[in-house]
């Protein structure tokens, strides 16, 4: 999940939740993303051409999602992804490498009881038994 979030942030300039839902954190996640060509934020609904602004937030029987109206062209999407990759690429690569390594070493470190090294130091100091 953390690696997926790093990748979507690096490529699409949106965290995983924003990328999948198309909602941005302006005020709260109740606001829907309005696709435009002025920012580098790309979401999945925008890539698929789903216009969530077509209907109201509550929705009515006659209003639904319109498809194909606000989809950015594939060339523009590729250009924005390239810009995001140039800006966020090194950070993304570092996170994609560091996160699994941190979990691997953290798992090994936390799997061992923390009292064993302390007991070993106490025995080396000549104390055979400590009663609490």
Question: What does this entry look like structurally?
Answer:
By secondary structure, this protein is mostly helical. It is 53% helix and 3% strand. The protein has helices spanning 2-12, 16-21, 44-48, 74-111, 115-124, and strands at 50-51, 66-67. The protein has a two-stranded antiparallel ribbon with strand order 1-2.
Please state roughly what percent of the residues sit in beta strands, choosing from under 5%, 5-15%, 15-25%, 25-35%, 35-45% or over 45%: under 5%
- Main-sheet strand order equals 1-2
Give the overall silhouette: rod-shaped
If helices are DSSP runs of H or I spanning 4 or more residues, what is the number of helices? Answer: 5
**Mean pLDDT rating:** 75
Kindly give the count of domains: 1
Helical residue percent? 40-55%
**How would you characterize the largest beta sheet?**
2 strands, antiparallel
How are the elements arranged and paired?
Blueprint: H1 2-12, H2 16-21, H3 44-48, E1 50-51, E2 66-67, H4 74-111, H5 115-124
Helix pairs in contact: 1-4
Which key terms come to mind for this protein?
3% strand, mainly alpha, 5 helices, rod-shaped, 53% helix
Brief synopsis:
With 132 residues, the chain is mainly alpha-helical.
